[in-house]
Amino acid sequence: MDPQQALIIIKPDAVQRGLMGKILKRFEDVGLKIVAFKFEWADREKIIAHYPETDEWFGKVGQRTLKNYGAKGLEAKEMLGTDDPVAIGKMVKSWLIDYMSESPLLFAVVEGYETIHIVRKLCGDTNPMNALPGTIRGDFSHDNIDLANGRRRPLRNIIHGTDAVEEASKEINLWFRPEELHTYARADEEIMF
Ligand code: CDP
Ligand code: MG
Hints:
Elements: E1 4-10, H1 12-16, H2 20-29, E2 33-40, H3 44-50, H4 55-71, H5 76-80, H6 85-99, E3 105-112, H7 115-123, H8 136-140, H9 145-150, E4 159-161, H10 165-175, H11 189-192
Antiparallel strand pairs: 1-3, 1-4, 2-3
Helix pairs in contact: 4-6
The site of cytidine-5'-diphosphate (CDP) has 15 residues, from helix 4, helix 6 and helix 9.
């Protein structure tokens, strides 16, 4: 089994609340190796490139909104003017661009075995209301989809973590140059790697 890399981005709500250290600690504590790290304002164009531009992704995001509205008996059409998942996904993406432009972002690449699974586990559910205690989103946020999307803004959910193996290298190459990724040994590496 080869080690895997994943991108994490500490989002503006966490930067604004001074949570960067606490969040990075979660990844260090489980033994993932931080191999790249930067803190900078993101170009709008790069944020656009970061979130997929496919109907599949828009549909997935929009479906999440519809599912939440449905569970609460809310009408997406009334609240957002449409119940088309792809159209809702496109709206969410446009809100994300503003959200990710509110502050500098902390970008890091973490490495280890089954990294993407571990990163998602540490981050917790996308919808902070459902993220379990002990996860980053569950411990540091309590936003929810119908509140957020009903106010025409994205979920303020603290962190981005790569969610698929196929997306990892695209995301990492978008934000980091190859020479910014470092190779070194962690002290506990003999046991782990
Ligand atoms: O970030 P994650 O991979 O968990 O979720 P995603 O489905 O890839 O969506 C990207 C981001 O869009 C989320 O982290 C939320 O900030 C936002 N989002 C939203 O505001 N409303 C939705 N219905 C779905 C996603
Ligand atoms: Mg995602």
